[in-house]
Amino acid sequence: MSIISNQLTNSGLEAQVLRALAAAGPEKFFELADLLPLAAFPTHQTAYQALADAFTTDQPAPADLPEAEIPSGFNLDSAAAELAELARKRLVAEAMERAWAGIPVKPAGEVIAELQEAVARAEAAVRELSAGGVTFAADISSDVLRWVQEFRAAREATGRAVIYPPTGMPALDRMVSGMAPGLWALLGTPGAGKTFFAIHLMVQFLRQPDAAVLYVSYEEPVNRLVLKAWCNSAGLKWDDYTTGYGDPAALQQVARDFAPLGQRMAVMEGNQNTTTAHIRAKAAAVKARTRARHLLVVVDYIQLMANTAAGNINDRAYQDAVRHRVGAVVVGLREIANRLEATVLAVSAMNRASYRDAGTLSAARESSDIEYSADVFLRLQSGEQDIPPGAPRPVELHVLKNRVTGQTGMIPLVALVSQSRFGEAASGGSGEDCPF
């Protein structure tokens, strides 16, 4: 901790800023309040809190502030910025020191993972230093206009009906404008095809040459996940190949055809040590390695991610722990979507009480956080049950929430079991937005 105490703190400057703030009065204090959180005063936190309390309640500045001589030409704004920068550096140093401590006793791979997580935690902590600033609309008018122009330019550049990577289902694309960045929730009853639908969306996403995917799986082993992706892309029945009936020569050609997409598809097997900070670090690495403009992160599924370290399933404390962990996972995935400008697809189990109620948002098992945090909320509902094995199976896709365009509704789909694909029940589309 010596670098933090010796090089990353400046008690003299803290005292000078406190004295200068007291002399300048409440107006200047509130101007700099967003820049100066309590963590910016590690030596004189009590004095800073007392000054804040006094000004907040319209009281005069405390008389017992630390002694300090204010030099001529002292610039309060610059001094406050320096304290804020020191606070940010301390957070980074503390995170890195915790990871560094494990180097002598832990395997190199584990240390690298911890360093990646430490960096992600430090970045999040630095952002959270501020209580939140105020932005006036007039100050960002040009930024908003430039932002809107980017959407127009993207549509003209792609020539597609949607500006984001399409889902392969025209009705869904029209409703959500493709797979826009943000947090997407995908719910469904057991057997509705949540994982297969996630794989379908992943393959469609990868069809765009500037797109990459990180698929975090808690159920599917890597080899089976890749096999399902191959079969989805080529329209083959995946379980023919796991039962010995499929043609290996045909699959070899599929593997060759899929190779350019496979270069941008990364799979991560989740375990009890996997955190959202770890996922974020891996996702950032995938995006950098592939130089992708669009990034999709799939987590399949969030309850299993929360369950891995929650405890004894028979304990009441277990249930509370799972709810808390699911909520924390959702917050972490929201952070990944925001910071990496990624589309994050969170696959979620449903509570049993919602199995028959297709039109509700409060269906996510162990968590209501996802219904508030999600930008797009999808639910798969199985249709008619008496379907012969291998025959197309009707499925309803309910778009229950949509912050992208505001449109919601139900889209009838068909699970094409013999092709390992999903399609719209009455599509009629063609071309890039309807590849099958």
From TrEMBL:
SF4 helicase domain mapped to chain residues: 158-429
Pfam families hit by this protein: DnaB_C
Molecular function via GO: ATP binding; DNA helicase activity
GO terms under biological process: DNA replication
Record Gene3D superfamilies: P-loop containing nucleotide triphosphate hydrolases
Highest rank taxon of the organism: Bacteria
One Gene Ontology term, aspect cellular component: cytosol
Name recorded for this polypeptide: SF4 helicase domain-containing protein
Organism: Pelotomaculum thermopropionicum (strain DSM 13744 / JCM 10971 / SI)
